Amino acid sequence: MKIHREGYTSLFMTSLFIAGFIVGINVAWPEQTTWHTIFYIFCALIFLIVLQFFRSPKRNIQPDENKIISPADGKIVAIERTTETEYLNEERVQISIFMSPLNVHLNRYPVGGNVSYFKYHPGKYLVAWHPKSSSDNERTTIVIKTKNNIEILLRQIAGALARRIVCYCNTNDEVRQGEEMGFIKFGSRVDVLIPVDFALHVKIGDKVTGGYTVLANFNS
């Protein structure tokens, strides 16, 4: 299993913490007992839980200019019309993907093209399903202009557990569909805002896979 580079520091710090805890326990109670064994198993489970947060499975993604693919693993929790006021200033269909702590947390570009807008917003850490998490939480906004001059907007949104958003793009970058866009540590949410006349391929409750699941077609 490949581990994403965003996890190296967290895994190192977790290892140091566990090692220090084990040394402390053995200094205080050197005689090995059943409780020591239980404690070792508990420490191993903690490390494995943190490890799976940062897994990065290999995926063979075939770009398709006519499709919008899911930028994240997770579950569709909302599909609704909304007026986007930060950049587009028009009505869009918003597809919201909730990433649980058990999902892969790597985010991918849903389309290829030029990054026409990027902005980081500091904010709160409301739970990801809170109605105001899209506007009040820490988040990034990314807009990608495709080859046919259609702009797709997406947001990485922090949540109650996710306290660090990483985005690798900058304005004017050329990006490819399916490439790594960023990482949200310990889950949260990604919103994709598409034109209202696009043909949807998903519904609320669907589980999606980043880089594979088709969210919508460009033609209605």
Outline the fold blueprint.
Elements: H1 8-28, H2 34-53, E1 67-69, E2 74-84, E3 90-99, E4 106-108, E5 113-121, H3 133-136, E6 139-145, E7 151-157, E8 165-167, E9 174-175, E10 180-184, E11 188-194, E12 199-200, E13 207-208, E14 214-217
Antiparallel strand pairs: 1-14, 2-3, 2-13, 3-11, 4-10, 5-6, 5-9, 6-7, 7-11, 8-10, 12-14
Helix pairs in contact: 1-2
What this model shows, in words?
The protein contains three helices and 14 strands. It is an alpha+beta fold and 220 residues long. The protein folds into two domains: 49 residues; 151 residues, Glucose Permease (Domain IIA) (Distorted Sandwich). Helix 1 packs antiparallel against helix 2. The chain is elongated and about 70 Å long. The two termini are 39 Å apart.
Count of spatially separate domains: 2
CATH class group of the largest domain: Mainly Beta
User: What would the average pLDDT be, to the nearest integer?
Assistant: 89
Low-confidence stretches: none
Hey, roughly how much beta strand do the residues contain? 25-35%
Report the biggest beta sheet as strand number plus sense, adding barrel if it closes. 8 strands, antiparallel
User: Rough shape?
Assistant: elongated
Strand numbers in spatial order across the main sheet: 9-5-6-7-11-3-2-13
What proportion of the residues is helical, as a percent range? 10-25%
Number of helices, where a helix is a run of at least 4 consecutive DSSP H or I residues: 3
Write down how many β-strands occur, each being a DSSP E stretch of 2 or more residues.
14
Gyration radius, to the nearest Å? 20 Å
CATH superfamily of the largest domain: Glucose Permease (Domain IIA)
Quaternary state of the chains: single chain
- Tell me the CATH architecture of the largest domain: Distorted Sandwich
